[in-house]
Amino acid sequence: MKKYLNLFDFSQKVDYKTEILSGLTVAMALIPEAVAFAFIAGLSPLTGLYAAFMMGLVTSIFGGRPGMISGATGAVAVVLVTLAASHGVEYIFATVIVAGLLQVAAGTLRMGKLIRLVPQPVIFGFVNGLAIIIFMSQLDQFKSADGNWLTGQTLYILLALVGLTMLIIWGLPKITKVIPASLTAILTVFGLVTFLGIDTKTVGDLASIKGGFPPFHIPAVPFTFETLQIIFPYAAVVAGVGLIESLLTLNIVDEITETRGRGNKEAVAQGTANILSGLFSGMGGCAMIGQSLINISSGARARLSGIVASVMLLVFIMFGSSLIEQVPMAALTGLMIMVSIGTFEWASLKTFTKMPKSDVFLMVLVTLVTAVLHNLALAVLIGVVLAALFFAWDNAKRIRARKYVDKNGVKHYEMFGPLFFGSITAFNEKFDVLNDPNEVVIDFAESRVVDMSAIEALNKITERYLKVGKKVHLKHLSPDCRKLIAKADSIIDVNVMEDPTYKLAVDKI
Questions:
Q1: Which of 182, 215, 325, 350 can bridge 204 by disulfide, Cβ–Cβ 3.0-4.6 Å?
Q2: CA-CA distances (angstroms) from residue 73 to 13, 259, 267?
Q3: CA-CA distance, 243 to 262, in Å (whole number)?
């Protein structure tokens, strides 16, 4: 158990004061977001708050990235809103449980390493888009209940309080880091509003957060195949969105802290947390980049901060709701705006003239898809697919051939670059079948046969030479290429054999 917690092992360099204060700050910031995300999904506020408690607690203890915060998220809420409207909250609980099982399976099968396939421009775009989402979501606080923009004294008071919060968060670390700037800002604005009796929007204006301990509850849905057909598509998307957002957040925290998290362990923890969230009346969720950055920027690096945040959130729900409901939304709005500013990869703007145009396009596209559609999984998927296509297109142009005829009258084609589905057209154009001598050698010492399309291309080129009575040798195929060709032997007509002159060769006879 010790290897999971590392909470009170004094041989570890854990700043307990920083961890506790940072956790308290995160707990306060979690409340309005959890409530807002529950509303997005069409659920009660407590459904979001219970999810934030369960997700945060389980992943903080068992997750693969100490210091990372999980909770109810907008990405998951957007997926669940349609199901909640059509089938109700019980199906949401069942969906979250199934999604958790899928995530546990993904982690157990060690699929967390697939996040390595996400290129840096896509990560930049994801982070920048998320920063824009965080900022835009705060603009709702500057609107009245009927959706119109605030005006007059109400707006000026709100702007002043938000500005004060941002000023404290920006300036206090330049003076002292004894206490977290974010917590200081919240408490200062709270005290100012209370002392002066300022009339401004508070957490309680969103909804009441009063409740008890999350009740254990098996989803009241029919345990039939028809039910599974309804919930499984949603569960699969929730699982995918949750893993993508969690693993990308893990990578970002890794870069900031210059340490390395464990993706597969985090996937199992996320899945377990979602299973328990569904069983304890929560809407599920995943890692939260905004809250994670608040935690990390406050100096937290251990598991304790996340545990404190989750436990204090539950304490607020059960015992401190009347006090927390008086916290000005201006303080939390200012905090989240500073988080969005800190989240945005400003350095990425300097790369516009230095990065390849395809990478710049990817970054901008992923940013726009993330910010406009609020669909993080779709944005990352589009980015990865386009990056793969750009890579294939770029490598398709790299295949070259050096040609010469030796003293025996044999023509040699020395290939350079990968032979795969994207480069077979250029590969076929290299050969002069009609004018070549009776014996031809295609040398792959500096090339590689990658896929079935490449093998089929070899088959066709040998067929073309065979039709005019000429022989082809494939020379210097690497072991993996020979293995690939051997597996395809029953599908296409290319045979592997030893050749006294060319050693490892494939002859078409």
A1: 325
A2: 31, 25, 16
A3: 13
Question: Is the pLDDT at 162 greater than 90, yes or no?
Answer: yes
Here the tokens at position 97 are 């449980």
**Predicted structure pTM score:** 0.72
pLDDT computed for residue 138 by the predictor: 83
- Contact in structure between 93 and 219 (CB atoms under 8 Å): yes
Contacts of 368 by beta carbon, 8 Å cutoff, 6+ apart:
129
Backbone angles phi, psi at 401, to 5 degrees: -140, 130
Helix runs in 258-327, H state only: 263-279, 289-297, 304-318, 321-324
- DSSP string over 65-97: STT--EE--HHHHHHHHHHHHHH-HHHHHHHHH
User: What residues contact residue 225 under an 8 Å CB cut-off, 6+ apart?
Assistant: none
Q: 314 is written with which tokens?
A: 């539950």
What is the rounded CA–CA span in Å between residue 52 and residue 73?
9
| Cα separation, 110 vs 499, whole angstroms | 42
Picking from 101, 82, 84, the residue whose alpha carbon sits closest to that of residue 92 is 84
pLDDT tens digits for range 115-138:
777 788 888 888 788 788 878 878
Helix (H, G, I), strand (E, B) or coil at 222: coil
Per-residue model confidence as pLDDT tens digits over 372-410: 887 777 788 888 889 888 888 887 777 889 999 998 899
Q: Return the C-alpha torsion angle 333, 335, 338, 342, nearest 10.
A: -130
